[in-house]
Specification:
The protein is α+β, with helices and mostly antiparallel strands. It has 14 helices and 13 strands.
Length: about 400
């Protein structure tokens, strides 16, 4: 009964009120938004800002300690009052959060005492992510770009050649906002990733949080994708292959257990193929031939297990599957078409300007795309705009 009531409160009152004031930099929880869209926005920004300009992009990846568990109820209720949510619903949410108790159970007869939970929102509920979004919705910084995906927050600053970095001011600003909202930054897990292609390295002062300097890393996992400092996908593809191989082992074990072909194919489609397709529009057009081949080998290996005496193409036909490359292309084309045809799409503003030519009626390209490097040309937005 409580789940039904929670769903009603979220869909009827909380969700519409939040969407009226949602930060455009927030990609989590928002309907018709996704990690893929957040990653497309990030990579497009970083590819564009470093496109043959000698500039360096400094990216700071923030980590908060137990973000959902440290939400202050008094601050949350005060923020709820600034939204168009009826007072009785706010009182219902207050009651939903109040007087919750928890205990630790070590064994059947060994339990701690019940204690009140003074802060935090219950995870695994429909209301929890929306309440978290409300807590951080008013966070913002001036000079740097910012991306939020629920409790994942990243900021980036592009420093033109010869200029001075001011990202420390943005980091301090965000740290102050987090402290004011009683969030705790885990500075030991916050990282800096630098993207730059200038021939000579530029020295930058280390970024600090609570007087601790952030580690500068060559790659980082952002929303499930491994992003390297050179914007190449070798490390990410290597990680995908390693993860897929572990599941291919289970596929081979199921084959030895004499499962039928249909069940084996379903296991592959459900548990192995999605590994290779997660957020694939972000990197598909940037893959080199050998990386694309390495990914295709995952499916070839799976088909050899399921159909041991059949060629790869015949196995695909028997299983009713496409090649992984064709699947990625299909998903990439679908996303770009959605962006182009929907003016309200979150990524529509990233499209390059249209070609309006009243004289040359044979103008083939819809968009006016300019680039200096192959890297930016192969960016998701640029590459697909060039095809239109």
């Amino acid at each position: 009964m409580s789940k039904l009531a929670e769903d009603y409160v979220v869909s009827t009152f909380v969700k519409p009120a939040v969407l009226k004031k949602i930060d455009p930099n927030q990609y989590g929880t928002v309907p018709k938004s996704s990690t893929t869209q957040a990653l497309v926005s990030m990579l497009h920004s970083w590819n564009s800002s470093t496109d043959g300009k000698g500039a360096t992009t400094r990216i700071v990846l923030f980590d908060f300690k137990k973000a959902f568990d440290l939400i202050d109820h008094h601050l949350l209720i005060a923020k709820l009052a600034t939204y168009e949510i009826p007072q009785d619903i706010i009182m219902w949410i207050t009651d939903f959060l109040s007087c919750r108790k928890q205990r630790v159970k070590l064994s059947q007869d060994c339990c701690s005492e019940w204690e009140l939970v003074p802060a935090g929102v219950p995870q695994g509920t429909k209301l929890g992510p929306w309440l978290y979004v409300i807590m951080i919705n008013d966070w913002g910084i001036g000079a740097s770009n910012m991306w939020k995906y629920v409790d994942d927050t990243s900021i980036a600053e592009t420093i033109e050649k010869g200029n001075i970095s001011s990202i420390q001011d943005s980091v301090d600003d965000l740290a102050e906002q987090a402290l004011a909202n009683k969030f705790q930054m885990n500075q030991s897990k916050c990282k800096e990733l630098r993207i730059g292609f200038a021939k000579s390295n530029t020295y930058f002062e280390p970024i600090k949080i609570n007087d601790a300097s952030l580690d500068v890393v060559n790659s980082a996992t952002i929303l499930g994708l491994t992003i390297s400092h050179d914007l190449k996908w070798n490390e990410h593809v290597s990680g995908l292959i390693k993860k897929a191989r572990k599941r291919l082992y289970f596929l081979s074990q199921l084959k030895r257990s004499h499962l039928e072909t249909r069940e084996l194919t379903q296991f592959y489609i459900t548990c192995i193929r999605p590994i290779t397709e997660y957020a694939c529009p972000v990197f598909h057009d940037s893959l080199t031939k050998y990386l694309s081949h390495d990914l295709e080998m995952i499916q070839k290996r799976a088909m050899r297990i399921i159909f041991p005496w059949v060629s790869y193409n015949d196995a695909l036909s028997a299983a009713g599957l496409q090649s992984l490359g064709d699947r990625r292309q299909e998903l990439t084309d679908k996303l770009f078409q959605d962006i182009v045809t929907n003016n309200d799409h979150k990524l529509h503003s990233l499209l390059p300007p249209c070609n309006y030519n009243g004289i040359n009626l044979r103008q083939k390209r819809k968009f006016n795309v300019s680039f200096k490097t192959q890297r930016y040309k192969n960016d998701f937005i640029s590459f697909n705009a060039l095809k239109m």
